[in-house]
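Ticket #4471: structure export looks truncated?
Reporter: QA, pipeline team
Priority: medium

Steps to reproduce: submit the single chain below to the structure queue and open the exported record.
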Amino acid sequence: MKNTPFLSLPFTFLPSYLFTIQSLFVTFAPMKIGTIDLGERPLFLAPMEDVTDIGFRKMCKRFGAAMVYTEFVSADAVIRSIKSTLSKLVIDDSERPVGIQIYGRDVASMVEAAKIVEQVKPDVIDINFGCPVKKVANKGAGSGMLKNIPLLLDITREVVKAVNTPVTVKTRLGWDNDNLVITDLAEQLQDCGIKGLDDSWTYPRTDVHRRS
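Actual output as written to the record:
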């Protein structure tokens, strides 16, 4: 991947927040995630806790979002069938394509949660390795996973193997400025079989930047 032009990568980099991918000087090829054709300069609605519920997603879809995401959900809560978590997994055909984002800190729970989530039939399952919120990162999930790259890769690899739905990943440049791992990590994640990588380029921060 080194010295490879951004737009020629075989998998998709996704925007971190709601905005159009456009430029006055660059012509973009149609964006795809797996077999999902999102067209040129698509508009995305990122997963946001307590914001991207089904009503908000449908409204954004109505006003031009090419793809929307549910609020992120804890793998452990999905497995334990926590009612408030399962309610976040309700999707409607009118909002497709729609992604569901999950987070966790071990292979077994993430694989099981991904299988449960797949039953809802989202168009994409996104793995969150980027959330810097203390109650998530301090437990080793979200951006906290950047301190354990081998485990991060194991989780990604096994989730990809466990489901038929396209899997994407959200992450950051690295845990801090002394550990900017994204160049190698992006290639390793691609080798795991992901279909898209978001946040690390379009929202270029480390976890330390966010927490400061």
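Status: closed, not a bug. The export was complete when the record was re-opened. Leaving a note from the reviewer for reference: The helical segments are 54-62, 75-79, 83-86, 107-118, 134-137, 149-162, 182-192, 207-211.
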